[in-house]
């Protein structure tokens, strides 16, 4: 496949479950090598969208292509290139870890035994432990191993860290940071916990009520907003501050805290020079950015 | 090439990488012809997305601070004296401006502020010279 061809192309996909419009004319194109954060509250439509991409749901309207093939008709060739870890994470409880790995790997011609050994060692899980007795963190690691052991080109992680305690979550993030070092792999991670993904992703897709509100580079999203704290050097700040596109402003005579959009640091400094004030520019947290985008 | 990334600062990681490398080049810790750590190795070392490092290197190249030799790696470019001075001034200006504004705001006189700066300057300078 050509490197510039998209791995996933979703066009005008709508899906309704009874009275709920789960997806509403969604467009999404995913290029190879990207690490995408699919962000949104519970019920925004993240999982539904992911399930369309791998053909588990059929769209009421619109088209969904994965690896250039209609997602509803994916065959073994395409499916063996997709790793999928979902929130419920159902595994065969009665097997031992070793049995489960052997069982799953037997389905794949391209299973990478070296990678398996490396991860098993990393995970610190006994191969003889029963799957049903593993902690949530261990289960999730095992599920990931099973999803990447065959080196899929597309890895889909649906709320992978939702059920984990803080320590397991941090270990899981380390694991993700290791996985993303392979530049050929495309990864989609859905999450409603923003801090889970911000270290890892390079592209953000923000969903709300079945629609995609934003689909852009994560750096661009970060740089779109910032907060400026102005302190008058002497006397008062002018009554009108020279910024366009102010999202929020709190001020008194000598100080102001202004949240602005689409103003580069350089431009801000230029604007601030005429004010005779001390200026501190701070980025917003991802949570704050998310709140602005969805409101 | 030692870089440190603050994941909680909210500053995009590629910008942290750029700023730190730029500073090292201006300070002479990275000299003309020095090879930067490869994208892959730096990404692994910093535990960040390789695309992030790639982006940072590409922007440093646009800025003219580094050169990419295809198939070999990325190297610190030859900088004209004027160019280096300009970058230096820009970096310093940003920091000094804050200090100056604060001094005025606190009602510290120009002489006092200048004196403080001189003292600090001499302190670092003598340490730098004796360590050489």
Can you give a write-up of this model?
The complex is a heterodimer of chains A (295) and B (132). Chain A has 295 residues and is of the alpha/beta class. Chain A is 30% helix and 31% strand. In chain A, strand 7, helix 6 and strand 8 form a beta-alpha-beta unit. The longest helix of chain A has 14 residues, at 166-179. In chain A, 34% of the residues are buried. With 132 residues, chain B is mainly alpha-helical. Chain B is built from five helices and two strands; from the N terminus they run H-H-H-E-E-H-H. Chain B has a two-stranded antiparallel sheet. In chain B, helix 1 (13-27) crosses helix 3 (50-62) and helix 2 (39-46) crosses helix 3 (50-62).
Number of strands of chain B: 2
Radius of gyration of chain B: 18 Å
Order of helices and strands of chain A: EEEHEEHEHHHEHEHEEHEEEHEH
Provide the structure class of chain A. Answer: alpha/beta
Termini distance of chain B? 20 Å
Note the total helix count of chain A. 10
What is the percent of helical residues of chain B? 55-70%
Query: What are the segments of chain B in which pLDDT stays under 50 over at least 5 consecutive residues?
Result: none
Largest interface here, residues on each chain? A-B, 30 and 23 residues
Which shape of chain A, going by the Cα principal axes? elongated
Biggest β-sheet description of chain B: 2 strands, antiparallel
- Multimer state: heterodimer
Structural class of chain B: mainly alpha
Write the layout of secondary structure elements.
The complex is a heterodimer of chains A (295) and B (132).
Chain A: E1 8-17, E2 20-30, E3 35-39, H1 46-53, E4 61-66, E5 69-70, H2 76-79, E6 82-85, H3 97-105, H4 113-123, H5 136-148, E7 154-158, H6 166-179, E8 186-191, H7 194-197, E9 203-208, E10 211-217, H8 218-224, E11 225-232, E12 246-251, E13 255-261, H9 265-273, E14 277-283, H10 286-294
Parallel strand pairs in A: 3-8, 3-9, 6-7, 7-8
Antiparallel strand pairs in A: 1-2, 1-4, 4-5, 9-10, 11-13, 11-14, 12-13
Chain B: H1 13-27, H2 39-46, H3 50-62, E1 66-69, E2 73-76, H4 81-105, H5 110-131
Antiparallel strand pairs in B: 1-2
Helix pairs in contact in B: 1-3, 2-3
